[in-house]
Amino acid sequence: MSTSPPPGDASSDPTGDATGRFLVQPNGRVRPLSPHLQVWRWHVTMAASILNRMTGGALSVGAVVVFAWLMALAFGPEAYATFTGWMSAPLGLFVWFGLTLALCLHLAGGVRHLIWDAGRGLSPKTADALSWASMIGGVVIAVAFWAVLFASGRVGL
Amino acid sequence: MSRATKTYIKGVKVSERHGAGEWTAERLSSLILVPLTLWGLWTGYTLSGAGYDAALDWFRAPVNASLLAVTLLVSVWHMQMGLKVIVDDYIHKPGSRGALLGLIGLFCLVVAAAGVFFIVRLALGSAPLPAGFGI
Lengths: 157, 135
Prior knowledge:
heterodimer
């Protein structure tokens, strides 16, 4: 079996495989594996975008909690006392905190997407900065909200 | 029906079908929800640990009840669109996709209808449920 030289200019093909991501194609050329989530080099814009979808999904579950609050209130003092009893226990407060965190992250992420959708802030540097700002901002707002809640004595452990 | 002439805005082609409508609706709903979410956080702070009577008092103010109803409806609309995009992206089998979208639609309808029902009763100061429903 005769081996033909690889087609095209193979001189700049990678020779080492430090990343484990390169594959010798049937035609002899060295090519990187097709990137997917598992092999993708994570970038902050990508992480922020995925986070926005995840928090949006989480908020759909959170909607059920808020709906249950509304329902308990409409069903009178006993139902309301039962609901607030569960939701003021440590596990309940944890659920509320998760809901607040998802809400703040989704809010900040949503504002970021609105800025991008208006065609602004799309240069790589600004897009990165906006991604970091929305993620850090979301966490800061949620933590501050709960710090004030505890400090005001409205909730306690 | 495609348009006779293709339309461009700032050099970007405008969709000839309905895709742009969904895109716009998602942005419009998020734009409306930005102030409503901030108001919702403020409300959550006000009502946290305030008890049953304080919550009832809060609902008796028409501004609060109306804003909450608007927040609920726009949120459910936004949620339906968001969940639909996730299903459209990841579920490729037409049967499963249709069934899931149907379930999501049903869930959203129930949350919206029952939620508005509760809000209206609380705003009007009706007796606690299930009063008047024969249970």
